[in-house]
UniProtKB/TrEMBL annotation:
GO terms for biological process: transmembrane transport. The gene is oppF_5. Residues 7-251 form the ABC transporter domain. It comes from Koleobacter methoxysyntrophicus. PANTHER family: TRANSPORT ATP-BINDING PROTEIN. Keywords: ATP-binding, Nucleotide-binding, Transport. The keyword RNA-binding does not apply. This is Oligopeptide transport ATP-binding protein OppF. The lineage of its organism: Bacteria, Bacillati, Bacillota, Clostridia, Koleobacterales. The keyword ATP-binding applies.
Length: 265
């Protein structure tokens, strides 16, 4: 089903310094790949290294060792704006990065500007309109001129998703994008992401601490514990035959789940 490798993470390690100056291996010799059109989910607890891995892929921090390749090219050799057009990011907390006094249309327009996507006014309006429709912020006329502070929490998160998608990226990294939402809105946003993956062929690297969510949205799951990747597999393989104690503890809470079901809770 998935033929071409889009992203390769090869033996990356990232070491931070603790307050007492002792080394902390946030990421330890991690390897994985993401294929075109695939949803790979990194599952792990708080502090397991998931977000550090994402920041390395985005080129925002350098691993101390190892390589990251996007379409067989070292990501640190790719110009930042070009990489930003190819790989986009959905933040966990839209309240922290969306300007509350910016309008919806300005948020999306500025996202295009930051990575150097130049469109004539009609093309830009068309792309923004199409993106807003994809995430359920429609009709455009009802939302375009609203300020961010006027949006509900769910609408803010949809705008965060739209900000990633308006670039027409090949890969989206989604860092716990539904953890702050109530269940009904959470399901809606997850279904939007899954539909975009299915209909647009966009690859996703999804990050969560919730195996239940991972099992429904993923083609493959990689489990991260203390900066190390301890097992990978399809949702069915991970749930039915977990090998690591941490994974077993996660699966024990969702025994009997059907990985093909669309009902999340």
């Amino acid at each position: 089903m998935f033929d071409k490798v889009l992203l390769t993470v090869n033996k990356i390690t990232k070491i931070y310094k603790a307050p007492d100056n002792s080394p902390v291996r946030a990421v330890d010799d991690v390897c994985f790949f993401v294929k075109e059109g695939e949803v790979l989910t990194l599952v792990g607890g708080s502090g397991s290294g998931k977000t550090t891995i994402a920041l390395c892929i985005l080129g925002l921090i350098r691993p101390d060792s190892g390589e990251i390749y996007y379409r067989s090219k070292d990501i640190f050799a790719i110009p930042k704006k070009q990489l930003g057009r190819e790989i986009s990011f959905i933040f966990q907390n839209p309240y922290e990065y969306l300007n509350p006094y910016s309008t919806v249309v300005n948020v999306l327009s500025e996202t295009l500007n930051v990575v150097g996507i130049s469109l004539d006014p009609e093309e830009k309006r068309k792309r923004i309109n199409e993106t807003m429709k994809m995430v359920g912020l429609r009709p455009m006329e009802s939302y375009a001129d609203r300020y961010v502070y006027q949006l509900s929490g769910g609408q803010k998160q949809k705008l965060a998703v739209a900000s990633a998608l308006v670039l027409k990226p090949k890969l989206v990294i989604a860092d716990n994008p539904v953890s702050m939402l109530d269940i009904s809105i959470r399901n809606e946003v997850l279904n939007i992401i899954k539909a975009i993956n299915r209909d647009q062929g966009i690859s996703f690297l999804f990050i969560t601490n919730d195996l239940r969510i991972a099992s429904h949205i993923s083609d493959r799951i990689a489990v991260i514990v203390n900066g190390r990747m301890v097992e990978t597999g399809t949702p069915e393989q991970i749930i039915k035959n977990p090998s690591h104690p941490f994974t077993k503890s996660l699966t024990s809470s969702i025994l009997g789940i059907d990985p093909n079901s669309r009902i999340l809770y």
